[in-house]
Amino acid sequence: xxxxxxxxxxxxxxxxxxxxxxxxxxxxxxxxxxxxxxxxxxxxxxxxxxxxxxxxxxxxxxxxxxxxxxxxxxxxxxxxxxxxxxxxxxxxxxxxxxxxxxxxxxxxxxxxxxxxxxxxxxxxxxxxxxxxxxxxxxxxxxxxxxxxxxxxxxxxxxxxxxxxxxxxxxxxxxxxxxxxxxxxxxxxxxxxxxxxxxxxxxxxxxxxxxxxxxxxxxxxxxxxxxxxxxxxxxxxxxxxxxxxxxxxxxxxxxxxxxxxxxxxxxxxxxxxxxxxxxxxxxxxxxxxxxxxxxxxxxxxxxxxxxxxxxxxxxxxxxxxxxxxxxxxxxxxxxxxxxxxxxxxxxxxxxxxxxxxxxxxxxxxxxxxxxxxxxx
Length: 375
Hints:
There is one protein chain. By secondary structure, this protein is α+β, with helices and mostly antiparallel strands. 28% of the residues lie in helices and 22% in strands. It has nine helices and 22 strands. The strands form five sheets. An eight-stranded mixed β-sheet has the order 6-7-5-15-16-17-14-20, sandwiched between helices. The radius of gyration is 21 Å and the shape is globular.
């Protein structure tokens, strides 16, 4: 990849965690930055994410190392900003598999320990002494992995915090922009065109629009395969529970929220969401009740959980499961951030992309994630 000149002005399309984090890091480096978004910040995938901070069940790859750097930046944030304590937690993660032949808990724990990822293999009887609030009877006899270094974040709260500093540094946010088109006149990114308005010029553009990324890139003949499914996230009414860790179980994932509730998701419940032809979604009452019951079953005391809110929509996942990050080689000045693990990577990706955009030099930690791998 050739070195790109340093821009003076950057437009960030998208106000989820990747867009806002990148915009703030760019503003910190002295650039004139404008965020353009179709709606309010965090209204898309960042607002309906389980937001589990982890690199569980992974070998020592570039993706694992990037995720570990991501977790590190959250620890720095927690240590330097005490106001994050209510919505950024490092109380660990607990994972178990179904009681069947393909249960991999023992081998996965060994893999994690081999690469230095903090992992403890616990029997069901040992769990309560390590992390409270879990129904030991729901854990398969093969045991569970407890990862003490994992945690969770409430992304809307984080985005609000980042935007305060972004605005204080002179950053601009354009909300409800409608359809945005990348201006690639002359073979490079020159800004964006917002529906009904004149073009907004810039030296570089960062596309951070989550599940809309492949379609927007296709408009300028850039191919990125898409494996985006429909996500379903339920939030319960506040419930008294000792649970602090994130639970990743065969039938449900659960984490606490800042206001004493729980959020839940699962693969099977997402598959039951009906995508309607008008762009809306239908979630059946049976699916909602089933997911609430599955969550109750893994909690100590099996409390009855009541629905407070239901969030549904596309969950960004590139076609090969790996992030797509950095400058598009065939369109100088156009950068992209597209990944499933937005919560874990949110702070580090914003930092590395900003450095790459400002310096014009490709960041080595992003080398494995260029869109050019699909060319």
